[in-house]
Amino acid sequence: MKRLSAFNVVSLTLGFAFLYIPMLILILFSFNESKLVTVWAGFSTKWYGELMQNEAMLQAAWVTVKVAVFSSTIATVLGTMAAYVMVRGGRFMGRTLFSGMIYAPLVMPEVITGLSLLLLFIGIGLDRGVLTIVLAHTTFAMCYVSVVVSSRLATFDRSLEEAALDLGCSQAQAFRLVTLPIIAPAVVSGWLLAFTLSLDDLVIASFTTGPAATTLPIKIFSAVRLGVSPEINALSTIMIGIVTVGVISASLISKRALVKQRREEQEAVRTA
Amino acid sequence: MRRFFLIAVPYVWLLALFLVPFIIVLKISLSDAAIARPPYVPQFEWAEGIRAFFAELDFENFTWLIEDDLYWKAYLSSLQIALTSTLLTLIVGYPIAYGMARAPEEWRPTLMMLVILPFWTSFLIRVYAWKGILSNEGFLNQFLMWTGLVSEPLQILNTTTAVYIGIVYTYLPFMILPIYAALERMDDSLIEAAEDLGCSRLSAFWLVTIPLSKGGIIAGCFLVFIPAMGEFVIPSLLGGSDTLMIGKVLWEEFFSNRDWPVASAVAVILLLILVVPIVLFQRNQQKEQEGDA
């Protein structure tokens, strides 16, 4: 039996306090009456009201969501293809270069990725706007998707696919009926990861956007550069709220799926 | 045919939007700056062929980087800030990962979720949160004055200290998760064996726990160090005018000075510096995976 010593308790408490207190303060001051973000002057929701009146902010939020939906969806398709090729593709010409190009964007400083893509877009004369941000986000997000999906592909039992093929499935049918349902959770988390990365990205979007398309992070960055403002706190609170609900429900769903899967496995063993 | 299509689509995408842009950066880093749109003079045309390519290469942007001490000072100070904050993150993160690994089994998924949750929350917002805390009238200074530890507010925001705090805070989950994964796999009976054989708890920790979590420590350090080196958001929101970081220099060279060739040269050198830790990181990951198998 493991024992949780006093030292463990203290380090966990301090650690989680460090992780969460800044966000709690941020949320608290979004409900502050005063414009000063440091002095408490009573409860108010007026900053949320002002946020809803802020046309430019809403416009930026819409652009951001649009970019995130498109780029994460394309990235999920391309990333899953890339993962399948990496794990099941066997040998082909330029495989090392391919895997290098998948892993490199994960560790590449964003300033370099952004700069290089901008230079490409200018080089080929593509007007910068929503399209260029989608292309840029898709490129780095597909690498994350491919890593998430390939780790799932690498661990699952290949004999299931082989059984389907033996029983007369075509390759495509085997993929659709056997492989895809098994890797589906990884594909979904890959999509979520890609979506979040796109929503969150400031640096690459700043390089690849044009005057017509301002995303929320760009807007937030230019506002907070000058100082703190309760309106940004209100916006942050909404975003933290969405993420919290999303993460908690995702973990509940995956927990339930795991329990169900275990039960089914036990059933199968019992009947066998 | 289907296999060809499956390989070709992601391959061509990455070639066109990852590799080709790099070659362009390299090309522009070897070009002359000009007051024009786009603001550089191409050093060669693709059509002229390989010979012309090598004949006309121009390293003056790179000699410029060496001669002007702003740049190498920025590289050195990024290196120093990234190394120090990686070490600080390790010191803060290890006890948390250790506590998580020793917590009762049924708590662990919740603790994991609590570590992952900030990672899904906007990076920009988490950095912004510290702006209000660290300012002169901020929460931290109010607290310190209330306890009587200081009589004057401390200047923390817009200093390098604030940058350290920002990096440790935002990258902490990247440090905790790999170390936790390594510690969780560890067999407790090893510690018991060490203690039975006469180790004190502390020496059992040094001689058994730390070496067994080495892979996780190394992975965590690289995951913090590599992005911290090119960091832009944290120094520009929390750092002061004396906080030099190369990501910020590149950004300003590009957006404020509009000197694209120099910005490209800065990027090329940054990448050359990062190649070493990136390769070491890949090797460590490979070793870890083989160790698992």
Automatic annotation (TrEMBL), chain B:
<feature type="transmembrane region" description="Helical">
    <location>
        <begin position="12"/>
        <end position="30"/>
    </location>
</feature>
<feature type="transmembrane region" description="Helical">
    <location>
        <begin position="110"/>
        <end position="129"/>
    </location>
</feature>
<dbReference type="GO" id="GO:0005886">
    <property type="term" value="C:plasma membrane"/>
</dbReference>
<dbReference type="InterPro" id="IPR000515">
    <property type="entry name" value="MetI-like"/>
</dbReference>
<dbReference type="Pfam" id="PF00528">
    <property type="entry name" value="BPD_transp_1"/>
</dbReference>
<keyword id="KW-0813">Transport</keyword>
<feature type="transmembrane region" description="Helical">
    <location>
        <begin position="162"/>
        <end position="183"/>
    </location>
</feature>
<keyword id="KW-0472">Membrane</keyword>
<comment type="similarity">
    <text>Belongs to the binding-protein-dependent transport system permease family. CysTW subfamily.</text>
</comment>
<keyword id="KW-0812">Transmembrane</keyword>
<feature type="transmembrane region" description="Helical">
    <location>
        <begin position="204"/>
        <end position="228"/>
    </location>
</feature>
<feature type="transmembrane region" description="Helical">
    <location>
        <begin position="260"/>
        <end position="281"/>
    </location>
</feature>
<feature type="transmembrane region" description="Helical">
    <location>
        <begin position="74"/>
        <end position="98"/>
    </location>
</feature>
<protein>
    <submittedName>
        <fullName>Putrescine/spermidine ABC transporter permease</fullName>
    </submittedName>
</protein>
<dbReference type="InterPro" id="IPR035906">
    <property type="entry name" value="MetI-like_sf"/>
</dbReference>
<keyword id="KW-1003">Cell membrane</keyword>
<dbReference type="GO" id="GO:0055085">
    <property type="term" value="P:transmembrane transport"/>
</dbReference>
<keyword id="KW-1133">Transmembrane helix</keyword>
<feature type="domain" description="ABC transmembrane type-1">
    <location>
        <begin position="75"/>
        <end position="281"/>
    </location>
</feature>
